[in-house]
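TOKENISED FOLD:
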Amino acid sequence: MTHLLDGPGRPAAQQPSWPDAEALKGAIDTLASFPPVVFAGECDVLRERMALASQGKAFVLQGGDCAETFAAATADNIRDRVKTILQMAAVLTYGASVPVVKVGRMAGQYAKPRSSDVETRDGETLPAYRGDMVNDFEFTPQARIPDPQRMVRAYHASTATLNLVRAFTTGGYADLRHVHDWNKGFVATPANAAYEKLARDIDKAMRFMLACGADFDAMRATEFFAAHEALILDYERPLTRVDHRSGRLYDTSGHFIWIGERTRDLDGAHIDYVARVHNPIGVKLSTKTTADYVEQVMDRLDPERTPGRLTFITRMGARQIRDALPPIIEAATAAGAAVTWICDPMHGNTFESSSGYKTRDFADIVEEVHGFFDVHRALGTVPGGIHIELTGNDVTECIGGAEKILDADLTKRYESVCDPRLNHRQGLELAFLVA
């Protein structure tokens, strides 16, 4: 399959320097022999859901780890992440009065782009950590050597994760009544009492549905899709397969894949790759984005302007979104956009705290979401969803929120190996504020 996907001479940014060509070939051949992680028909369903979100008939919630790790791929961690997304989705469904499309940053988010190829600590310089798919976070020469067998391990961790996610979301764990009970427990705490009225309103709606004879058994299961950044092409390409029904290519490593800020070069290998697959795809757009780029990338990735095919995930920063986003939306609209607009309020709001930790302020995250909605309201366009880095655990990585996490608290439970994530309570609080 690889020969179908190689753009001739196209530069591939952010790729590992694999030291052993034979070992790399062996890993790629192994991946190519494995069954798909997801199926083409599931990707088509998500395209339909994303199309609804582009028209204001659904709302997308993308959430999960900044970078998954093999050590954290445990049943408890997966359950808690799914639980957080389900709780947020229940609140957002009520607030938006439309279905919420649940998409996890999981079952494949094992690689991260880096601003530098190397990292220096105490005078020693080693290759940068590029995610568990490539090398290890431990700062030793041996751990930082890129190992292609890690791609095979990432495949197995992804399939195990998605297998458990499917069990949770179809086996009764996602029952709307349970999810609502969890949220009632959340607002019962003094810090979150401000959201009690909304929770009571949802409770009344649930009782009304019950009185009308609503089929709650039909609400015991829910759709849940897997997404990740398509970064390491030596992983994505072997998992690209031809669908026997349509003859189209699909990246079967995940339902939804996106291209990040550092790899969205129009002449690069990443854009060339996603142009060839039929999955719903996303492109991250920062304040560096130009109107000309928006039109060109639409022509390249969605020439027929098909709703559900292309998503723009904007990451502007709380202080810049109201100025930077309008010209991008206006350019896309003028070019006949059928895209789904999603707000990533995380990546534009990262800073180093006085204690030396990379963090984000919850107030900035909320402000960027407000700005996103304000801009779309002013332009008459559709805000289609939010994209959040979060965990189901009670970490202390982002300051602020009802818990009032302070800079001094970051040392208590800072567990991310890359970017700071909202914890379980902050994720829920954001959902209540958006609702």
The chain has 13 helices and 14 strands. The mean pLDDT is 94. The CA atoms of residues 291 and 331 lie 5 Å apart.
